[in-house]
């Protein structure tokens, strides 16, 4: 049973990594994430976007990109604070798991790619990645994390984060569109 | 002569006061209302609002993330950043389209008439 769960989680993690390509296969899976693991994945997903924003603050000179990055850092920090406060209230300690690990591994690759670029090429790569990342995180939250969550309050928190993620996605697409006209 | 003036004054003063009280300006002052726009789930609600000149609009941020209220041209008026649970109010004199400069996809309209 234990090893079966391990396999399921590993499959889940792989599926999560292909979310960026529009896969919805996850809906068919039968993953086994505890609330502590969901909390860990949620915090990590938010922290990753804060890390991307930090790179943008270092490398970009474009005011709309910088302003977007600042909103990302502030909003995702607010979500983490809320998640951590709720976990504390529920006495849940976020638990590392395959989904969290996969998110981190993918993020490291992206960070390396971003760091290798500069100027307008960096701005484009950062915004393109924000569009892809928010698209995949929205799918993961809706189709994986929310259905996996047992606790109602944690579920509500995840649901309340979706509109913010969607606004970020639309904002990123707006900048992407502006850039393509230049 | 003086007493005639006083008499005229005594009659005119109440008339003047009555006129003032009955003037459209005073009526508007009495009728001025406060409207509430909630910012929740990344939306202004109601996103479209109709008010009388001089009415106050209070914006209440119910989200966990910070928002602001920025007049669409970016030149006329703008609220400070509104952290979670904070409010900001503005007396409306002219119609305006507005948006959140932190999340430009969030938009609203106030029509003054
Ligand atoms: Cu906003």
From TrEMBL, chain A:
Keywords of this entry: Signal
Phosphoprotein found in the keyword field: no
Residues annotated as domain DUF4142: 34-174
Record bears the keyword Signal: yes
Domain of life: Bacteria
Span of the signal peptide: 1-27
Coiled-coil segments: none
Gene3D superfamilies: 1.20.1260.10
InterPro entries assigned to the protein according to its UniProt record, in alphabetical order: DUF4142 (IPR025419), Ferritin-like (IPR012347)
Descriptive protein name: Putative membrane protein
Record lineage: Bacteria, Pseudomonadati, Bacteroidota, Cytophagia, Cytophagales
From TrEMBL, chain B:
InterPro entries: Cupredoxin (IPR008972), EfeO_Cupredoxin (IPR028096), ET_Amicyanin (IPR052721)
All residue ranges annotated as the EfeO-type cupredoxin-like domain in the record: 16-112
Domain of life: Bacteria
Keyword Signal recorded: yes
Keyword annotations of the record: Signal
Record has Signal as a keyword: yes
Signal peptide: 1-26
Pfam families for this protein: Cupredoxin_1 (PF13473)
Identification of the protein by name: Plastocyanin
Species the sequence originates in: Pontibacter indicus
